Amino acid sequence: MNLTDRIAVITGGAGGIGAALARRFAAEGAAAVVLADLDGDAVRAVAEGIGPLAHATTLDVTDEEQVKALVDDTERRYGRIDLFCANAGVTSGGGIEADDRAWDRAWRVNVLAHVYSARAVLPGMLTRGGGHLLHTCSAAGVLTAVGDAPYTATKHAAVAFAEWLSITYRDRGIRVSALCPQGVDTPMLADGLAAGHLGARVTAASGAVLTPDQVADAAVAGLAEERFLILPHPEVAGYARRRAEDPDGWQAGLRKLVRRLSA
What we know:
The protein has a single domain (7-262), classed as NAD(P)-binding Rossmann-like Domain (Rossmann fold), CATH 3.40.50. The relative contact order is 0.13. By secondary structure, it is α/β, with parallel strands linked by helices. Helix 1 links the parallel strand 1 (7-11) and strand 2. Helix 4 (100-128) packs parallel to helix 5 and helix 9 crosses helix 10 (247-262). It has 10 helices and 7 strands. It has helices at 16-27, 40-50, 64-78, 100-128, 149-169, 187-194, 198-206, 212-224, 235-245, 247-262; strands at residues 7-11, 32-37, 54-58, 83-86, 131-136, 174-179, 229-230.
């Protein structure tokens, strides 16, 4: 997808990867960027920093009616949606001890929000014969987020859902991309490190921590090439191959890393 003159919607747009995507889309010549986030004040500040082509709104991505209203309002305002970025996400930092509320929150934000946006935006895209869905899924969706069971399980589900969408709708003009970065310098990672979450510590120790702008650069390149799997950390592809070819060895390596960090 060439972003020039495109209408893009981004959830989780108040900071981190979402805000970086919005700034980069604007720099690429997008006609409009609609930013949505639960933190209304923060997302409006991001939109104001971008300028007149950006529009901000408060949104709870776990409320399907709100997601549908966002899509309907954007289509009324701009006539169409060319690119929908389901970017909002949450971590838990928990394992089997994580309570049902943590699992439910991870499921609703990391998976169901993607389902809700696809349900809302696909009819218009299919009628127009084209469109692109960009789902932020994390490298945890193709590997494992050590120390965070709800995040691992739901990000795997997010990648699986994106793949299903791609297989089902590509021949009808819909492109789907799963954005799967590893460590990114965002409040999510910083909060996890501050709380001492094992998953955040493993992420920080496993490789380069990219800036959100670097992830946005990779996303734009992947969209231009219409790639399904967008890996801002190219080494993740190698990790995934090792994991598939030698799962026992892959798990042994992660256990060794966990022992070193725990010590």
